[in-house]
Specification:
The protein has 350 residues and is of the alpha+beta class. The protein folds into two domains: 207 residues, no CATH class; 110 residues, no CATH class. Helices cover 16% and strands 27% of the residues. The chain is built from seven helices and 20 strands. α4 crosses α7. The protein is globular and about 55 Å long.
Length: 350
């Protein structure tokens, strides 16, 4: 019988041809070797034109990933419906595929000059839970191949200020994906919640609120009047929220998937969720549970009025793997968001 083999941390993962089949929108006992085999896109794969039944979407405030841009898509099983809830990521049915393609424009100032696709990550809701599968794009931009052990790719781009940037971009292995996507001991999506999807998106048919669009397509049930739905601010758009609200929105998507009551970092005593109102759980005048060199010699996670004395800022500004936060998905400092967090801390009354 034909088999597919991948090297994973020194061991060989062997899947039979039957184990890599795809039935509708449901993976059967394992992933495909190539991204194209899922039938998620039509035409040239690099154009990322969604096939019928695949819906593009965007988050109000996305996770920072070394300045990479992202294209997001979701495919539900035929006839499936998601039930609205205002508090957490939607409970997507078995057979759902969430797609996220990471890319860099050649020149951020001139989008028409093209882009370089680096990786596409799939979250597939299989019978035994969510599984993460990273696919790495070839140099020809014609295909992306499963790399369960991850990979490092050199990328280069021109930023919005006209400065040339270069980076050894790290595609995570399947175990590293679990570092961010585990909640309560189970693999789970992070982004697609009501407050993240409550915003407009320009579809081929026109611009429409995403949740309203999902409801109109019979993808979403029990959606209340849109004015009653919570909405996360856009971190870098002052029109959408105050400095505090936008800084908290950035911390939620970048930090709270670990730092919350059921997250992998719950023992830290920090809860950086957007709706957390307890100052101590937010880190205000809170001493770290385990200091070490990660504290940078500072006493408190957040010192009101003093970002330079706050452990939170020290770790956000670090690129030392033993100090920096978030621990994964970045090698660079997100300078713009750090300035926003500093502005928020300066606004807190000592």
């Amino acid at each position: 019988m034909k088999t597919v083999r991948w090297l994973l941390f020194g061991a060989v993962l062997v899947l039979t041809a039957a184990q890599v089949r795809f039935r509708g929108a449901e993976a059967v006992n394992g992933p495909h070797e190539r991204l194209s085999e899922y039938g998620l896109f039509v035409g040239k794969l690099a154009d990322q034109r969604p096939a019928e039944g695949v819906l593009p979407y965007a988050l109000n405030t996305p996770l920072f990933s070394d300045y990479a841009e992202k294209l997001r898509f979701v495919r539900l099983p035929a006839g499936a419906v998601v039930t609205y809830n205002p508090d957490s990521v939607f409970a997507f049915p078995v057979g759902t595929v969430l797609v996220k393609t990471f890319y860099y424009p050649v020149d951020y100032r001139q989008p028409g000059r093209g882009r370089r696709l680096v990786e596409t990550r799939l979250l597939v809701h299989e019978e035994n839970g969510w599984k993460a599968y990273p696919y790495v794009w070839n140099d020809e931009q014609t295909e992306a191949v499963l790399e369960v052990a991850g990979e490092v790719r050199a990328v280069a781009w021109t930023d919005e200020k006209g400065k040339k940037q270069e980076l050894q971009y790290a595609v995570p292995n399947v175990n590293q994906c679990k570092g961010c996507h585990v909640s309560g001991g189970r693999m789970t999506p992070i982004g697609p919640s009501a407050r993240q999807l409550n915003g407009n998106f320009t579809y081929d048919s026109g611009t429409e609120n995403q949740l309203v669009h999902w409801k109109r397509l019979n993808w979403l049930e029990k959606l209340p009047t849109i004015s009653e739905v919570p909405k996360l601010p856009i971190w870098n758009d002052p029109v959408t929220g105050t400095v505090t609200e936008r800084a908290r929105a950035w911390l939620e998507i970048n930090c709270a998937h670990c730092h919350h009551a059921n997250g992998p970092a719950r023992t830290s005593g920090l809860d950086l969720s957007f709706r957390q109102a307890n100052p101590t759980l937010l880190g205000i005048r809170k001493t770290p549970v385990a200091a070490g060199r990660g504290s940078g010699g500072r006493q408190y996670d957040i010192v009101p009025g003093h970002p330079e004395q706050s452990i939170l800022v020290y770790r956000l500004e670090s690129t030392d793997p033993g100090v920096m936060m978030p621990e994964l998905s970045r090698k660079l400092v997100h300078q713009e968001s750090v300035e926003l967090v500093k502005e928020w801390i300066r606004s807190l009354k000592p």
